[in-house]
Amino acid sequence: MGILSAVSGDGGFVRTVLGDVSPLDLGVTYTHEHLYTRPADHLLDGGDRALDDVSKTVEELGLFRRAGGGTIVDVTTLELGRSPEALRRISQLSGVHVVSTTGHVAEDYWRGVVDVDSKSTDDLTEEMVRELCEGMSGTETRAGIIKCGSSLSRVTATEERVLRAAARAQQRTGAPITTHTTAGTAALEQLHILEGAGADLAHVCIGHLDRRLDWETHWSIVQAGANLGYDCMSKDWYEPDARRVEFIRRLVAEGYGHRICVSGDLARRTSLVAWGGGPGYVHIMWRIRPWLLRVGLTEAQVSMLLRDNPGRFLAWT
Asked: pTM for the complete prediction?
């Protein structure tokens, strides 16, 4: 099928592991999660970061569906143990749309696992385009989003090549870009590199910004036309959910609610109900959604955050 899709229309299409779908069919969507992972160093913390049991992920997604969920973006890259085959089984068994990822996170994640440093921008671009249009890791399962990122408070030379490659791959395919910021830092540096490389900022989401709730930084990002990744919901050790809700309320009041993508980035067994932890994927629907309504958002505005914004961001243009 290549870059062309069987789904057409003004809204574009979203590429899932089972095929292309309309953005209108996604339902409630979390834009930054990890469904199946096996990092090389997962045993260092007792295996907590190894989400390598398909049945448990399907069980967790059953709770997500019953809470009203429809789609999960799995941002697990090759260095984190990405498995296209597992994601296909998970989507088939759960009935949840799953979007998979090409690209790379940041040096701390790929160092000693995947040789990213020796690759040129052209090499990285070709890799991303191939995984978006042909398939990942020798399979016919295609990625639907590009990932790139940066280190704490800086963008290294290799990370800049990955960012520039992401912008080039987006130009060639129309795929969206999601980023990893380490502790919410270097966000504006990422934005400037992507913009300078020709990225369509309406389909760029700068990630983990709710780990560092700095109004001026977030305001600069939405003014530039990019999306804010408020994707650490429930992680009060970074920032309390009360501040996340207040930032969302304020952005909606200022007319920029359409630039927010909400998720949880739950990547540990201790964060998921199926593994005996919590709060799991129901947290946003059962706790954050009613909280947003209590602080004055309308049902339509909450639907914008959970349905409309992800659909618009994820659509290939």
From this structure: 0.96
